[in-house]
Amino acid sequence: MAKVTLRRLDNKFHFLAANSNGNTLHFDTGSEEGGSGQGVGPMQAVAMALGGCSGIDIVMILEKQRQNLRKFHAAITYDRAEEETPALFTNLHVHYEFEGELDPEKVRRAVDLSVNKYCSVAKILEKTASITVSWSINDQPYTLESAN
What we know:
- The protein is α+β, with helices and mostly antiparallel strands and 148 residues long.
- The protein folds into two domains: 4-33, no CATH class; 42-147, GMP Synthetase, Chain A, domain 3, CATH 3.30.300.
- It has helices spanning 42-64, 104-118, 120-125, 144-147, and strands at 4-8, 15-19, 24-27, 68-80, 89-101, 130-137, 140-143.
- A four-stranded mixed sheet has the order 4-5-6-7.
- A hairpin with an 8-residue loop joins strand 4 and strand 5 (89-101).
- Helix 1 crosses helix 2.
């Protein structure tokens, strides 16, 4: 069984999360919510997890396809139902940036497999939100629709 821990660091909302390897992540809220802004918000961390989960999948798939990937970045934008409690995600968009000697069809397949089959975070989030993706290869833009 996996385990993570959370420890409160101040008398407000600053927490330190750790995994069993000792890797840490700071959580907090901004000053407008009474925090000190010393960490990421929990929902920001979930959006980051979508990028991390799908990024790991995509890089692994491209490595198996023997693609020469020199650069990988991801940017995640999202909307939440702010007027509701809880304020769940309604839309998330992930944009991936790739550089290298890459076959566009292999990149399309890696992105599709990750977001629609392998990424556990995406599978959780798709229950309440739409997830869209786009990417660029050496500054050439693609979407799942345009790549077909």
